[in-house]
Amino acid sequence: MTGEQFEARDRQPPAQREAELFARLPDAIAHAMAAAPGWARHLAGTEPRAVCDRAALAALPVLRKSDLLALQRQSPPFGGFLAGDLKGAPRVYMSPGPIFEPQPDGEDPWNAARALAAAGFKPGDMVFNTFSYHMTPGGFLLDHGARALGCTVFPAGVGNTEMLVEAAAILQPDGYVGTPDFLKVILDKARDAGRDLGSIRRALVSGGALFPSLRAEYASRGVAVRQCYATAELGVIAYESEAADGMIVNEDCIVEIVRPGTRTPVADGEVGELVVTTFKRAYPMIRFGTGDLSAILPGRSACGRTNMRLAGWLGRADQRTKIKGMFVDPVQIADVLARHPELVKARLSVSRRDEQDVMALFAESMAQDAALAARVAETLRDVTKLKGAVTLVPPGSLPNDGKVIVDERDYSAAPA
Fold first, then answer.
1. In this structure, what is the dihedral angle of CA atoms 279, 208, 65, 68, given to the nearest 10 degrees?
2. Is beta strand 126-129 parallel, antiparallel or unpaired with respect to 152-155?
3. Under 8 Å between Cβ of 273 and 260
4. Beta-bridge mates of residue 361
């Protein structure tokens, strides 16, 4: 598979793409309702053959990620949304929540190769993959895509930075895939150790926001960085190309932007929740609400690809927030409170420092002693799998605004 092999579909007339997608949709819905009891319940009363355009699709209910989490708890492990059984599924994953996902079949099961090609990766490249291969699908998602493109992959994973720098200095990879922040950690560590990582000239990042200042820093160090938007349930939904003029929707998925909390699509350009429909047979997703905010950009990309463009990630429709590539949910903060009866109320703040995400928990408590704060910090790490500072404050100190997680990172200068 090469970048040129994608071009016919990437550059087809938009009306042709739309017709092909909606010609496939009725069969996908019929299969989901027949093979998965969860979809049969969720779409009860739907006539699949009638869902042949966007207006008909918009009449269907949205399955939000929070709904899927609750349904999987009621009917583990997949909430009834697995179409058939696990026969043929090479792996099963557990994402934070926890939410379980079976791996789709195919050479490039999450449709990642197109995003890598658009980021400048080509057959024969060595890819330094720093996404986790542990429990979650992130590492495998890009691994399969890179190998389908004809690349060689070093499965670096996360952690043990010194060893990763040593491996990269020896192997001299052509490119990096991972979270936006971690590339800086590796490059800085290599510089401090006097190791040459100048072979890394391109990168595809995901799992967090690529802030303009960080992209500029990478460019100054000779690394062209592009980003893609992906989820465990859906695979790669959209990606940047060399034009860097928005995120181009991937082929084989239908994207809508709806008013948060509803099923109603908003006008192009209006910010709303990103809702996606995919066609995977074993684990179909029909109007899956990601909980992420975005908007449709006008026109087409200057690179010549003709699919719709998104304005990237513009925040969360709910308070579930991605921090260092991991989602943190309000229910997890409630879990921290439940484990410490001394605490009355808590609020998690997310900010940026030294081009990295930083989280801090502010908790109301009658006692503000250091030992209690240390125990709460340990619980916070156990529950979220992330480190965060803990500050204990007197009861009544936190705002009475219903917010459990506050994202204070500045997205105002984010690229379109």
1. 80
2. parallel
3. yes
4. 348, 390
- Residue 197 corresponds to which tokens in the numbers above? 């990582």
The pLDDT, as a whole number, for residue 368 is 87
Continuous H helices in 36-172: 37-42, 54-58, 65-74, 113-118, 138-148, 161-171
C-beta of residue 129 within 8 angstroms of C-beta of residue 156 = yes
Can you tell me which residue has the tokens 């207006």? 55
pLDDT in tens, 15-28: 999 999 999 999 99
Query: Residue 257: what residue type?
Result: I
Could you identify the residue written with the tokens 């820093």?
A: 217
- Strand order across the beta sheet in which 152-155 lies: 152-155, 126-129, 175-178, 202-205, 224-231, 235-239, 247-249, 309-310, 296-297
- Give the span between the Cα atoms of 50 and 33, in whole angstroms: 14
Rounded Cα distance, 62 and 42, in Å: 9
The answer to whether 25 touches 249, Cβ cutoff 8 Å, is: no
CB 137 within 8 A of CB 144: no
* Helix/strand/coil for 383: helix
Cα–Cα distance, 267 to 61 (Å, whole number): 19
Burial degree of 289 (CB within 10 A; 0-12, 13-18, 19+): buried
Q: How far apart are CA 364 and CA 391, in angstroms?
A: 9
Q: CA separation (Å) from 299 to 237, 246, 276? A: 18, 11, 20
pLDDT confidence band for 414 (50 / 70 / 90): very low
And the tokens for 237?
A: 């939904």
Q: For strand 224-231 and strand 202-205, is the pairing parallel, antiparallel, or unpaired? A: parallel
Cα 173 to Cα 140, 195, 197, distances in angstroms: 18, 13, 8
Give the integer Cα–Cα distance in Å for 179 and 327: 13
Q: How far apart are CA 309 and CA 76, in angstroms?
A: 36
**CA atoms of 108 and 171, how far apart (whole Å):** 25
Spell 182-209 as b/e; 16+ CB within 10 A means b: bbbbbbebbeeeebebeebebbbbbbbb
Are residues 227 and 205 in contact, defined by beta-carbon separation less than 8 angstroms? yes
User: In angstroms, rounded to a whole number, what is the distance separating the alpha carbons of residues 14 and 18?
Assistant: 6
pLDDT over 70 (residue 61) = yes
